[in-house]
Amino acid sequence: MMENSLKKYADAQNCPVRNVLDRFGDKWSTLVLLLLEEVEVLRFNELHKAIETISQKMLAVTLKSLEADGLIIRKQYQEIPPRVEYMLSARGASLMPHIKSLVQWANTNFEAIEQSREAYNR
C-alpha cells in the first residue's frame, strides 16, 4: 500500500503540481502576478520600477515564462516608440485566489518560520 502511494511521486517531471509550481514559484513570478492582479495593466518599465531589485533581463525572462504558460497576456501596440503592456489572462486570474491564500498563510506564519530557522541553525 505504501509503495503505491510513493509511486505517484516518482515521476517528478510529469507531475502537474510540481511542474506548475516550479514555473511560478520562482523568485519573481508570484510578485509579477500579484502586481498585475492589483494594477491590471502594466508596461515593462512600470513593472521594473515597481520591483526595484529585479534586473531587466530577469524581468524579461519572467514575463516570457508567464506568457508561455498562459498566465499573462502581452499586448504590443504598433506605435513609435513601441508600447507593450502586460495583464493577467483568465488562467492567471483563476490562479490568484490560491496565490493570495498562500500569501496570507506566509504572512501569518513568517515570524514563527523565522524563529524555527534560527533555532535550527544554532
Automatic annotation (TrEMBL):
Cited Gene3D superfamilies: Winged helix-like DNA-binding domain superfamily/Winged helix DNA-binding domain
Organism domain of life: Bacteria
GO molecular function, one term: DNA binding
SUPFAM superfamilies reported in the protein's UniProt record: Winged helix' DNA-binding domain
InterPro entries the record matches: HTH_HxlR, WH-like_DNA-bd_sf, WH_DNA-bd_sf
Domain annotation HTH hxlR-type: ranges: 15-114
Keywords tagged on the record: DNA-binding, Transcription, Transcription regulation
Pfam hit, one: HxlR
The protein's name: Putative transcriptional regulator
Organism: Leeuwenhoekiella blandensis (strain CECT 7118 / CCUG 51940 / KCTC 22103 / MED217)
Biological classification of the source: Bacteria, Pseudomonadati, Bacteroidota, Flavobacteriia, Flavobacteriales
